[in-house]
Amino acid sequence: MNWNSILRWVHLFFGVSINGYFFYTVVLGNTATEMMVNLVMLSGGLAFWTGLAKWQLPRIRKWRKKVNSA
């Protein structure tokens, strides 16, 4: 496994957990506890940063290759 695959699965896992939270609160009409909201905020942050890192990884590799060959 490479970093791109790891970041993809981490991103998908935390993104799906956010979807589960919205299903729980909106569709089922339940209220969320403070702990659940904190977990969702943490999941959102991790999903955001892993997504950002995942999609920038090929660009960073290309830039490094270009800098090292110059």
Compact summary:
This protein has helices at 3-27, 34-69. It is mostly helical. Helix 1 (3-27) runs antiparallel to helix 2.
Characterization of the model:
- The mean pLDDT is 85.
- This protein has helices spanning 3-27, 34-69.
- The protein has one domain.
- It is an all-alpha fold.
Secondary structure elements and pairings:
Elements: H1 3-27, H2 34-69
Helix pairs in contact: 1-2
Structural descriptors:
70 residues; mainly alpha; 2 helices; 87% helix
Average the pLDDT over all residues and give the rounded result: 85
Query: Separation of termini?
Result: 30 Å
Q: What's the domain count?
A: 1
Please outline the major beta sheet.
none
**Which regions are unreliable across 5 or more consecutive residues at pLDDT < 50?**
none
What is the helix tally? 2
